Amino acid sequence: MRWLDIPPTWLVAGLLSAFGLDRLLPGLGFGWDWTRLVGDILIVAGLGSMGAAVLEFIRARTSFIPRRRPSAFLRSGIYRFTRNPIYLGDAMVLAGAILHWDVLPALVLVPVFGSFIERRFIRGEEAGLIAAFGDEARDWMGQVRRWL
């Protein structure tokens, strides 16, 4: 079942939790029209962030599967602005879906998701980058923020 412990699984769990909360306790939103638009923008931006990151992985011919040993150190493209554009995209999609569905109390899931992903995946991946690329990785991490 180790193959289930991948970030998209946790994103789906967050989405299902928000959707389930809306179905279990309907009417938690405020009915503001702007939340749907902002949610849609966040979803598109999140998918764009993920897509830009995957393009960098393809360009460098390295794996984007978590916990695999990196064969290239990505610093260009979207990696100039965030160290974790795929995880950032996941969080944006989660926040966007919650806003789109107008389940505003479920927004608490976004920092919970981010904290969980950081502990479960990001810290280990950063340690792997340092092990593989040393000071080059440390310097980059000192210049580029983990999220935004």
Specify the helix fraction band.
Answer: 55-70%
Structural category? mainly alpha
Largest sheet: none
Bulk shape: elongated
Low-pLDDT residue intervals, each spanning 5 or more residues = none
The gyration radius over C-alpha positions equals: 17 Å
Report the strand count: 0
How much β-strand is present in the residues? under 5%
| H-E string | HHHHH
Number of helices: 5
What separation lies between the terminal Cα atoms?
A: 32 Å
Mean pLDDT: 92
Structure explained in plain terms:
- The chain has 148 residues and is mainly α.
- It has a domain at 35-63 and 70-143.
- The chain has five helices and no strands.
- α2 (33-60) packs antiparallel against α3, α3 (85-101) runs antiparallel to α4 (109-133) and α4 (109-133) runs antiparallel to α5 (135-143).
- The two termini are 32 Å apart.
- The model has no long low-confidence stretch (mean pLDDT 92).
- It is found in: Endomembrane system.
- Keywords: Membrane, Transmembrane, Transmembrane helix.
Short description:
This protein is mostly helical and 148 residues long. It has a domain at 35-63 and 70-143.
Tag the structure with descriptive keywords.
single chain, 5 helices, 148 residues, mainly alpha, elongated
